[in-house]
Amino acid sequence: MAERITGHTELIGLLAYPIRHSSSPTMHNEAFAKLGLDYAYLAFEVGQDTLEDAVKGIRALRMVGANVSMPNKSAVCQYLDRLSPEAELCGAVNTIVNDNGVLTGHITDGIGYMRSLQDGQIDVVGKKMTVVGLGGAATAIEVQAALDGISELSIFNIKDKFWDSAQGTLDKIRERTSCKVNLYDLADLDKLKEEMADSYLFANATGMGMKPLEGKTYIPDKSFFRPDLIVTDVVYSPQETAMLKMAKEAGCKTMNGMGMILFQGAAAFELWTGKEMPVEYIKQVLGM
Ligand code: NAD
């Protein structure tokens, strides 16, 4: 790194708190080095109290842009000049691009999920998906899947604060895409089983299965899975959740959340540099 950084090196930041555990600095700096690009990516501990100043800093320092993660993904929207159609639908941003002082917010989480499916030779376009979740990760996936042309989306969630706040977003998806969108209470497990039965893909997009819910799943038993159902999980730690283990035992093709992380990064990398991230190399670097 010391040999690489000069007076010409351009900066990209990651604004989140806590953030020291993130794999994004390794991912991006390794990709810059591999392609010989003169950028550096650094993580900054920024919470909502310093977010506005940090965004002003992107303009003042003429940074190329930034990633944004929790707790800033929704709050950052108010400080940006423009939002991509996906970011506007989600009400959240994970990538900022600075174009001569004009800051545009994008969300690449859903793009990352859809690309990770493609990378696993899974084509969900024109088909039905059942997704559990209405939070940040789930909304990004649901918006992108609908924009990319899935035919039907059955969403399940517990009746918590996300249930009420998601209604507006689901209406916008219905208005702006041709995807049929259904919403059901996750307490109705018979309905869940019925919707999964004619879905091509089932996705957990909640933190179920990761700490403090490690080892847990809302799927009661293996009979919910049939061998030709594709089953994915946004959780990446542990790499195999209790749900993925059960699905694998039932003969399903499964995918964890590592691919979504990689490809959301690859999409952001392209927005900043105009170049494709060397994803096969980065998979090796990250031990994927
Ligand atoms: P969030 O807080 O925005 O949403 C939480 C979701 O979980 C909501 O739908 C909520 O209703 C649901 N939920 C909470 N408790 C539940 C329970 N007991 N039973 C069933 N559902 C419950 O969180 P988020 O940012 O969307 O993150 C969710 C998960 O996705 C986390 O595990 C996170 O690590 C993961 N994630 C992965 C990626 C990736 O790239 N792989 C990206 C973002 C988030």
Which ions, cofactors or small ligands are bound in this entry? nicotinamide-adenine-dinucleotide
Give the beta-strand count: 12
Low-confidence stretches: none
Going by CATH, what is the homologous superfamily of the largest domain?
A: NAD(P)-binding Rossmann-like Domain
Provide the succession of SSEs. Answer: EHEHEEHEEHEHEHHEHEEHEHH
Q: Give a short account of the largest sheet.
A: 6 strands, mixed
Radius of gyration: 19 Å
* Number of distinct helices: 11
Q: What characteristic shape results from the CA principal axes? A: globular
Share in β-strands: 15-25%
For the record, the count of structural domains works out to 2
Q: Which features does this protein show?
A:
288 residues; alpha/beta; Rossmann fold; 2 domains; six-stranded mixed β-sheet; six-stranded parallel β-sheet; 12 strands; 20% strand; binds nicotinamide-adenine-dinucleotide
Overview of the structural elements:
This protein is 37% helix and 20% strand. With 288 residues, it is α/β, with parallel strands linked by helices. The protein folds into 2 domains: 10-107 and 261-286, Rossmann fold; 110-256, NAD(P)-binding Rossmann-like Domain (Rossmann fold). Strands 2-1-3-5-6-4 form a 6-stranded mixed beta sheet, with helices on both faces. Nicotinamide-adenine-dinucleotide binds next to helix 5 and helix 10.
Write a brief structural summary.
The protein has 288 residues and is of the alpha/beta class. Helices cover 37% and strands 20% of the residues.
